[in-house]
């Protein structure tokens, strides 16, 4: 053996020791990374589960809102139908009021005419001489 061989062997053993230490550190780092990755995956799964739950609640809420909107639309339609009926009734009432106003006006005119005629009759009866049998003397 030459003197260079033991130094060379020592250098190889030293390099091997460094490589072993690096491999051990890499193995430890790998385990830590695997553990971290596992924890991250678990957290992501929990987050995903929560998101799924939130999405499910949102979907249920959206369905309830759709149902409420449908009920509201139906209510608006019923109210429109009621409004249409009320407008028809109001138009009929307005026509009745016009007819009543016309009839009342005609009645008032007839009463006025009759009042005038009655006054004429009274005036005639007051000034017409009577013979006691309810008839005038000229008859």
Automatic annotation (TrEMBL):
Residues 37-47 have a biased composition (Polar residues). Residues 48-70 have a biased composition (Basic and acidic residues). Residues 37-72 are annotated as: Disordered. It comes from the Bacteria. This is Uncharacterized protein. It comes from Fischerella thermalis CCMEE 5318.
């Amino acid at each position: 053996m030459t003197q260079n061989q033991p130094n060379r062997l020592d250098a190889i053993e030293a390099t091997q020791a460094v490589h072993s230490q690096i491999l051990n550190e890499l193995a430890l780092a790998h385990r830590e990374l695997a553990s971290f990755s596992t924890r991250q995956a678990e957290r992501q799964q929990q987050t995903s589960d929560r998101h799924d739950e939130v999405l499910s609640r949102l979907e249920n809420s959206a369905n309830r809102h759709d149902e409420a909107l449908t009920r509201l639309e139906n209510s608006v339609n019923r109210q429109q139908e009621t409004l249409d009926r009320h407008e028809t009734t109001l138009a009929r009432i307005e026509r009745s009021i016009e007819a009543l106003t016309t009839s009342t006006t005609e009645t008032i005119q007839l009463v006025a005419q009759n009042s005038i005629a009655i006054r004429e009759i009274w005036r005639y009866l007051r000034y017409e001489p009577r013979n006691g049998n309810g008839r005038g003397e000229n008859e």
